[in-house]
Amino acid sequence: MTDRGFRTTRTPDAPSAARVAVGAVLALGGIGLMVAAQLDLGPAWRVGIEAEARPGLVTTGWYAVGLRRGPWRRVPAGGIGSGPSAPDPRIRRGGGRSRAGAPGLLASGMRKVACEQCPTFAGCIVRDLRGPALDDFRACSVSGIYRCRQVLFHEGAPAGALYLLCLGSVKLYQSDGLGREHILAVAAPGEVLSELPLAADDTYSVSAEALTDCQVSWIARDRLVAFLHRHPEVGVQLVGALSRALGAARRKAREFALMRAQGRLAELLVQLVRASGEVPRNGRARVALAYSRRELAEMIGVSTETAIRLLARLKQKRLIEVGRHDLVVTDLSRLARLANRRG
Fold first, then answer.
1. How many angstroms separate the CA atoms of 196 and 239, rounded?
2. Is the pLDDT of residue 233 over 90?
3. 137 phi and psi angles, rounded to 5 deg
4. What is the CA radius of gyration of the chain?
5. According to the model, what pLDDT value does residue 97 have?
6. Which of 87, 98, 156, 293 is the most buried (most CB within 10 A)?
7. DSSP-assigned beta bridge partners for residue 165
8. DSSP letter (8 states) at residue 10
9. Per residue in 282-314, pLDDT tens?
10. Complete domains list, the chain, with CATH
11. What is d(CA 197, CA 137) in angstroms, rounded to the nearest whole number?
12. What ranges in the chain are assigned the alpha helix state H?
């Protein structure tokens, strides 16, 4: 205190030279690490931000773990516009051995199946072919095993081939520049995955990603036209398959226009039960979930948080029981009635 009663203010000590040095080192070190990480990542950081970016898949480096969980992991090895992606390289043609030790066998246990032994052959567009005609299809097409989460083709890429799903499950989706997705359909074995690529400038309207290990056959455009001329019965079945896909797309549009989110989720769960082949017993049916909650949300056009709340409501109503890797529909008839409500 001074003589006049005023309190004096003490000026704080200036930071020591050691503290300034430590702060500068930490700041410069952080900047250096950031620059090194960006250099290690290369141009792939722009994926989902710049539409014209065409980087390869990032599989190594400091960002690899994080990128595998984000939208960037879906870029095929040759870039977005690289055309049909290759099947898993561990599956060799001609019965080559994989790391699992069995001919044509993935570590997951899936092996290529010939058309005659395929359990879904009766629902495929080539089901009317026999003998030499079926051999002609095998000569024109390429069949391979795709691993779970492997991309078959990308939205906007040149449509160079017609894809047919033999075994497994594939999601068809569209995405924006920020990596946000909307799943249009989950294809079942025997279904056609892509449009009919007749013009050279045709592009795929959707992206396709394997939800499980799956077997896929595809026919290049130049071989497809000649094959359909030789086997018009396949063309008839192909028109039927594309017609069913058009009907499903229109029903999807109706659901978004006339159904609330709760009804769309109920409709999706009913479809998953039917697609699984599970026979309900006393209204109960168990479905193995190959989809995350985020993917379920994308199928019905809501956020992940909203999907979680909707699942909780169905659980409170005792319509479902949610496990870690499966889901049990406890009252299929009530769930179906909820799905049929409008407005």
1. 9
2. yes
3. -65, -45
4. 27
5. 32
6. 87
7. 216
8. P
9. 778 877 766 778 888 888 888 888 988 998 899
10. 43-75 (no CATH), 79-257 (2.60.120.10), 259-339 (1.10.10.10)
11. 17
12. 17-41, 64-68, 132-140, 221-230, 232-258, 261-276, 293-300, 304-316, 332-339
